[in-house]
What does this fold into?
Amino acid sequence: MEIDPFIFRLSIFILSIFIGYYVVWSVTPSLHTPLMSVTNAISSVIIVGAIIAGLAGNSANIFNSSSIFGFLAISLAATNIFGGFLVTQRMLAMYKKKKKDK
Amino acid sequence: MISANLSAIFYLISGVLFILALRGLSSPETSRQGNFFGILGMVIAITVTFLSIGDFSSGFVYVFIFLLIGALIGAFIAYKIPMTAMPELVAGFHSLVGLAAVFVAISAFLNPEAFNLGSPGDIKLGSLIEMSIGAAVGAITFSGSVIAFLKLQGIMSGSPITFKGQHPLNALILISIVVVTYLLCSTQSANLFWILLAISFLIGFLLIIPIGGADMPVVISMLNSYSGWAAAGIGFTLENTALIITGALVGSSGAILSYIMCKGMNRSFFNVILGGFGATDQISSTGSKEQKPVKSGNAEDAAFLMKNASSVIIVPGYGMAVAQAQHALREMVDTLKKNDIKVTYAIHPVAGRMPGHMNVLLAEANVPYDEVFELEEINNDFANTDVAFVIGANDVTNPAAKTDPQSPIYGMPVLDVEKCKSVLFVKRSLSPGYAGIDNDLFYKENTLMLFADAKKMTEDITKNL
It folds into this structure.
């Protein structure tokens, strides 16, 4: 009997939770705020679904009720992706070590 | 157009890059590289999506337009936002992830063919369950984050809003979410789908209103976690590995942060979620308050004390963020260092309104990160230190947490500030902190209270050094 592909996805999911668990515990507490902003940015990979949804309308009717939600979701996720990564970049650039010569 | 197998492999690669992005945050040196991996992963995921659809017809123009709108708004916010507003920003971003998840779920429900999930009214059962979970969690994330945002921004009062029957009502709604999901899956009715969304929005709202301002670090972390689970739910619907991996990472990341924050307050997660903390205690503490002598001083006294010290530990708290005193503080510390005084910073896990809040503000003020220490790293040093400079913190220094079993914060890990030879406490008044309890530290022999705005006081001290 064949295994349902769902089981494989579930396996990936469960194993990723464990990876997340160990990786996040190793994050230094002083970087917890950048951690939140970067997790925000990466969870916006949901834009993948939004793009599929946006392009689902046929060429005669680009804005049907389903694709309009896709387009809106694209904007929301894009705000998050750009905002999240850039603000993380901005924060991380501020973390500096003590200058040796002092 | 690329094959489904090839695109699945690219999604896997982008998932791995996201793991590396989080891994990079284990130290500030590798963190920038980590962020780059994250960006790369995102670029790969988006590019592969375009390639796998492969139909470059008129719709693409609109995709780019909407993408560009979001990108411009996001970039604008990222450059403009002051570092003190980071908790609000993160809460706002969580709400967007939640809403995006809801929109994608709606879209998939209305047009399941586009996602290979069946046809309207006849969606595959598994997909419908995943979709419902993604949509419900997304909706809760959205409305909960909006409330958190409003509270942090000060538009809504930070004090807990409680009413009679709150918990039974919430329990009832949560049960009805499960029931509606079950009915939705058995009938495929669109109306039930809208009802599910509506009650999920409602419960998100109701869950966050009873939680007070200083519990926000837990709330933000928790919503962070929810946004991950919502993304994972949608990932299952779309059968997309990148989304499943990311959702799991973000979900467990938020959960760990919530756990760390709860531990920092010595409270159970459940206790925070039920809310209302600080609302009841305040009344009891104002009742029988005898007048105890307090030593208060001015900037000159403080400057004198610090000039004659050989080591100083700075304890920042939310008050520093409110007064935007971090730059003035750094200038004061620079002057102290010129006088060969050793200065370090001690940060309590729940100082501020979100995990790591104080660290970011100090980094913004150019404080090197190797002068900043966490509670367990520095707590033994207080005993050998001349002066502790407490700026905008209160409850996290209260010795009652160690000595008074009656205290509501008993058992909470605190900074042993009272072990210093002398304590300088910058505070606007003697009013109790968030937990609504008096701080014994105010009345100690070796404590000097500096009643003033944190920023102004720090500037004055610098002038007097």
Q: What stands out?
A: Residues 65-94 of chain A form the longest helix (30 residues). Chain A has a mean pLDDT of 88. Chain A touches chain B through 85 residues (CB under 8 Å).
